[in-house]
């Protein structure tokens, strides 16, 4: 009988973690454990995961120690998606996974590919990747480009996913013709379930993407769906997001062609690995978004 892997997602109630754990449960191929912070254990999302067959394990805080080792006993794959955890805390979690006998760690990446030194956000994640390799535990690095869910201007500023999203949506960089890769958040879990079930992805970097589009194309989609004709505006922005947008829209880092190169980590193309998965398109998402159904 084929061994059914036990997979723990920490944390399982965030946006990425929620997509991942739903993809695992939908696949029916894994014993699925939802790693939950103690402060989140009474959330309705946790009850829903229980009803779908996920085991719940509670992490008391973001300082991981020998008690964490016990929580990770029997886990084959640890998937990290903890928003707000420090690098030191994530290293402690990797140490606990090593002691518990976890065979593979999916590091807390879920972003856009680039080179070191381009922006702080990527560099901080690279530190954890280096540490996982140093510890000697099996790993998979997964990037997802930019979510469809932050590709379009929110209906009002109160619904921003990050500061400045509403105001900066119409900003054009250069000619606006640099491509970038996008993935619908809901598709991430579907791909992840296939990735960790595939021995080929062990100790590799995989890039998930749904489609590539330029900023001008995104604006065209938005205008078509919402008759958007706002003026292109510029303004102040936190340094980390300026660097991130420079990487995406000026350098053109966030595309599968670059992710595949040795300099960027030699990513495996999730769409080539799993051609039967049909990712949702930006247009599909925009239609639902502006209709108010997502």
TrEMBL record:
It comes from Rickenella mellea. Belongs to the NmrA-type oxidoreductase family. Isoflavone reductase subfamily. Residues 4-285 form the NmrA-like domain. It comes from the Eukaryota. This is NAD-P-binding protein. Pfam families: NmrA. Coiled coil: none annotated. Keywords: NADP, Oxidoreductase. Signal peptide: none annotated. GO terms for molecular function: oxidoreductase activity.
């Amino acid at each position: 009988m084929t061994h059914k892997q036990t997979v723990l997602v920490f944390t399982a109630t965030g946006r990425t973690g929620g997509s991942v754990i739903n993809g695992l449960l939908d696949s029916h191929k894994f014993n699925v454990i939802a790693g939950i912070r103690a402060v989140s254990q009474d959330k309705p999302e946790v009850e829903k995961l229980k009803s779908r067959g996920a085991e719940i394990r509670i992490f008391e805080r973001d300082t991981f120690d020998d008690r964490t080792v016990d929580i990770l006993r029997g886990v084959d794959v640890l998937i990290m998606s903890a928003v707000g955890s420090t690098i030191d805390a994530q290293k402690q979690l990797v140490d606990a996974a090593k002691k518990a006998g976890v065979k593979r760690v999916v590091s807390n990446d879920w972003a856009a590919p680039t080179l070191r030194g381009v922006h702080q956000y990527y560099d901080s994640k690279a530190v954890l990747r280096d540490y996982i390799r140093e510890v000697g535990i099996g790993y998979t690095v997964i990037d997802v480009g930019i979510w469809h869910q932050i590709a379009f201007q929110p209906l009002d500023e109160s619904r921003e996913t990050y500061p400045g999203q509403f105001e900066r949506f119409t900003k054009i960089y250069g000619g606006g013709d640099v491509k970038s890769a996008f993935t619908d958040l809901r598709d991430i879990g579907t791909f992840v379930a296939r990735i960790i079930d595939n021995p080929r992805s062990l100790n590799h970097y995989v890039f998930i993407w749904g489609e590539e589009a330029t900023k001008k194309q995104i604006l065209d989609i938005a205008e078509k769906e919402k008759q958007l004709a706002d003026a292109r505006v510029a303004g102040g922005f936190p340094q980390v997001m300026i660097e991130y947008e420079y990487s995406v829209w000026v350098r053109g880092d966030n595309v599968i062609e670059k992710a595949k190169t040795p300099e960027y980590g030699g990513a495996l193309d999730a769409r080539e690995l799993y051609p039967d998965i049909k990712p949702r398109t930006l247009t599909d998402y925009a239609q639902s978004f502006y209709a108010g159904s997502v």
